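R.M. (postdoc): so does anyone remember the format we settled on? I'll just put the structure tokens first.
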């Protein structure tokens, strides 16, 4: 996820936005509605606005967070990534792994009273891959997975040919293009959420732009929200099929880009959880409410290889990748549990199917800070392009936390690569997504959080013409290795894993990205807040089982 986007993801936002997350209170005396349990009100901040609540169009951490809270998919993530019942009660998988049949519950309804049926999934998935919709994630998540998704997204087939069928109102059959070992976890992701066809068509272009143009089928209902809103509320959905499990009556959110302001509100008892910047960590480290966590979210610099001659040169890109002291950045500037990133797949996320060894440990450090090596590549690259100076624009977010990191990166590059001038372009999150999507950048900071539990979700980012590539990069050998993991090697776990290991090596031979850090969070959390689940992929937080003690 985009985390940035991408994942997502992202995915994107502790340093791109308030905590980037792509991705990222204490109970107060706020008045609540009649009959509401005042003890079960949670107050939180958000790093930026929610760009959209249309599941077909969502690409970022914030959208997927609130889509997960308000809409029920086939399955939902529980504690430790356990797949929990959603609209699907059970499923069966054919022996060849190509046909999945889901038995749906009959007691799930939309907030307008309509039943949630298999037809809602069929419509949503077809809409997501229909080229006329303009979805990024539909083709990205379904191509090569759901039968005919690629041909449909390329305009060669009608959406009705997608391999998804409502056998009856409460039986959904899905035909895959190739066996997908991660498909069950994929169904928990936002792009695969159902949509009420009649309602969506009735709203037209306004769908997903405000609370009035949305329906809910999940634990909460989104209230008081428009796409430009800086505050909104999640309210318990009384018609949710599992409403008896949901204890929180309300969760309020306020956009806060200044971490110090958020901490001040936390200390006043007006927020129940806040993220800490490095300058605040030491002040609160000894507090019982303090915690840090390292997350499977990578932040990196990606290069637009389609415009400037300098960034079309692999040695220039390698020089930039080696020129940043990432250890100093995470330890001295961030100080929040983040670790220096040295590859394209995060640490402690994916493990060898036979040995159990971490993907990151097997491939090791693909690129680390090395000033001498950076200078060597830099001089070689300058010679190849016939220049002694290079000017580049660096696109990034505009939060206070992000600005500190951006300036550090700018200084490192200009200091360690003589003749390089880096100009910062710091913009709001939604604008940043738009600029990167349209390839309107030189270098851009980006983050990616996993969309499902598999390294393929990280390595398919750089496929030729991939929906989230956004660099212009293309390598046929790389494409073949990555695609083999979902075709001929799909049911050969060891060979599949080894193909992905080889693919990652090519990412750094070609210097597609410059990895920066694996995201961490230092937080203060109200000790009365219990039951919040932090997910390794998809929506960062799950509040269905949360409560105030």
């Amino acid at each position: 996820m985009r985390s940035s986007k991408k994942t997502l993801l992202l995915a994107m936002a502790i340093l791109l936005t308030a905590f980037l997350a792509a991705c990222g209170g204490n109970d107060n005396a706020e008045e609540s509605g009649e009959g509401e349990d005042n003890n079960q009100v949670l107050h939180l901040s958000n790093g930026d606005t929610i760009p959209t609540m249309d599941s077909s169009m969502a690409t970022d951490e914030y959208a997927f967070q609130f889509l997960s809270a308000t809409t029920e998919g086939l399955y939902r993530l529980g504690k430790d990534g356990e797949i929990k019942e959603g609209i699907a009660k059970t499923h069966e998988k054919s022996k060849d792994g190509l046909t999945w049949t889901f038995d749906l519950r009959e007691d799930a309804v939309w907030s307008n009273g309509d039943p949630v049926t298999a037809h809602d999934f069929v419509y949503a998935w077809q809409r997501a891959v229909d080229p006329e919709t303009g979805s990024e994630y539909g083709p990205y998540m379904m191509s090569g997975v759901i039968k005919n998704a690629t041909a449909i997204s390329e305009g060669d087939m009608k959406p009705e040919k997608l391999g998804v069928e409502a056998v009856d109102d409460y039986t959904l059959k899905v035909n895959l293009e190739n066996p997908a070992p991660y498909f069950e976890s994929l169904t928990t992701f936002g792009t695969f959420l159902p949509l009420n066809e009649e309602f969506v068509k009735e709203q037209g272009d306004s769908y997903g732009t405000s609370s009035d143009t949305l329906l809910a089928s999940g634990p909460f209902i989104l209230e008081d929200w428009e796409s430009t809103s800086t505050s909104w509320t999640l309210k318990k959905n009384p018609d949710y099929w599992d409403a008896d499990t949901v204890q929180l009556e309300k969760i309020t959110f306020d956009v806060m880009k200044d971490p110090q302001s958020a901490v001040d509100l936390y200390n006043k008892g007006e927020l129940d959880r806040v993220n800490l910047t490095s300058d605040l960590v030491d002040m609160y480290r000894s507090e019982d409410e303090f915690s840090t966590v390292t997350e499977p979210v990578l932040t990196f610099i990606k290069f637009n290889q389609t415009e400037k001659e300098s960034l079309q040169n692999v040695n220039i890109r390698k020089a930039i990748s080696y020129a940043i002291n990432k250890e100093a950045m995470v330890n001295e500037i961030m100080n929040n549990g983040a670790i220096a990133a040295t590859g394209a797949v995060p640490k402690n996320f994916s493990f060898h199917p036979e040995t159990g060894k971490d993907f990151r440990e097997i491939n090791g450090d693909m690129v680390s800070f090395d000033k001498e090596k950076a200078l060597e590549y830099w001089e070689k690259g300058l010679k190849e392009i016939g220049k002694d100076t290079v000017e580049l624009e660096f696109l990034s977010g505009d939060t206070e936390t992000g600005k500190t990191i951006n300036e550090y990166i700018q200084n490192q590059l200009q200091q360690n690569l003589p003749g390089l001038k880096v100009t910062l372009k710091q913009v709001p999150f939604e604008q940043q997504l738009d600029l990167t999507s349209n390839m309107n950048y030189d270098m851009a900071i980006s983050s990616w959080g996993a969309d499902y539990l598999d390294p393929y979700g990280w390595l398919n980012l750089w496929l030729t013409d991939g929906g989230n590539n956004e660099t212009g990069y293309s390598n046929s050998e790389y494409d073949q290795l990555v695609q083999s993991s979902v075709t001929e090697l799909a049911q050969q776990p060891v060979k599949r894993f080894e193909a992905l290991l080889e693919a990652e090596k090519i990412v750094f031979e070609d210097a597609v990205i410059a990895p920066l850090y694996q995201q961490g969070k230092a937080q203060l959390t109200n000790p009365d807040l219990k039951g919040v689940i932090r997910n390794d992929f998809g929506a960062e937080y799950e509040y269905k089982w949360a409560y105030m003690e």
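R.M.: ...and that's the designed sequence above, right after the tokens. Also worth knowing: The CA atoms of residues 194 and 385 lie 51 Å apart. Residues 2-36 have pLDDT under 50 and may be disordered.
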